[in-house]
Amino acid sequence: MYQITAKGPREAIEPAWDALAWADPSPAGAVDAKEDGRHAWRLDAYAETAEEADACKAMILETSPSLNPVVEALEDRDWVTLSLEGLPPVEAGRFIVAGSHALAKSAPGKTPILIEAGPAFGTGHHGTTLGCLLGFEEVLKRARPQKVLDVGTGSGVLAIAAIKAGAKRAWGTEIDADSVRVANENAAKNHVANAFHTFETGGGMNTTIRGDGPYDLVFANILFRPLVGLAPTIAGLTAPGGHVILSGLLSHQEPLVREAYASRGLGLIHRVRKDGWSSLVFERMR
């Protein structure tokens, strides 16, 4: 495993991140970009082989020549799991998200969500997941969603939060088989497996999900381009008066996402910004 790191201004980091994230196929197995101090951003990419790491570096330099990417060989270990072990609990409104090692020590009065270290995205620490949970708090001030759809559910944390807040049923979607397995396992660990199930399916959803719509609440914590592309599908699956919570977009990408959903009868009612990421809460007109 190799880590490729580059630091610089946002206007240099974002195009490099976009190039790596959207290459098909991409030499990077995972890519992340975030603020790294005042007026500074950091790009981290991970590659399995030295050749792929060199290809990542070349793409970064081609896209943003001002950056100086550094390649570092990592010890052959499960870095995803190790990086999550020992993470502190995350508090987001009424919810607290943590692994079993920390959940037992969590704050009283909070709704616990057990998410162990693992490869599926969504421990609550990333600005997008945290933003969605805080956005959900805003929805709960206005409504009590009963049917929920979580597009790109990852660990299942958002759907699990919805059920623990009173939703009767939630469906999750994932394009990754391992994430499907992890989300369903997390549903069992949180004692909500009777109300939450994740399917392996793409943006077109499946017959079960389409047939069970419309939904009172739709989460979609994915990426900017799929968010825009899925706007017709998500809007069509949202009940009148229902809510949509979107994340996975950088703050400067908000206008295009807002436009895509506003044109389909969804009005922005709340916004959360964390670590350069935006989470947007929409309400569908009745």
TrEMBL record:
Keywords: Cytoplasm, Methyltransferase, S-adenosyl-L-methionine, Transferase
Cellular component GO terms held in the UniProt record: cytoplasm
GO BP: methylation
Superkingdom: Bacteria
Family matches, as CDD domains: AdoMet_MTases
Enzyme Commission code: 2.1.1.-
Main location: cytoplasm
Root EC class: transferase
InterPro entries: Ribosomal_L11_MeTrfase_PrmA, Ribosomal_PrmA_MeTrfase, SAM-dependent_MTases_sf
Subcellular localization, as worded in the UniProt entry: Cytoplasm
Pfam families: PrmA
Catalyses which reaction(s): L-lysyl-[protein] + 3 S-adenosyl-L-methionine = N(6),N(6),N(6)-trimethyl-L-lysyl-[protein] + 3 S-adenosyl-L-homocysteine + 3 H(+)
Sample GO molecular function, one term: protein-lysine N-methyltransferase activity
Keyword Nuclease assigned: no
Family statement drawn from the similarity comment of this UniProt entry: Belongs to the methyltransferase superfamily. PrmA family.
Role this protein plays: Methylates ribosomal protein L11.
Protein's name according to its UniProt entry: Ribosomal protein L11 methyltransferase
Organism field: Henriciella mobilis
Highest classification ranks of the organism: Bacteria, Pseudomonadati, Pseudomonadota, Alphaproteobacteria, Hyphomonadales
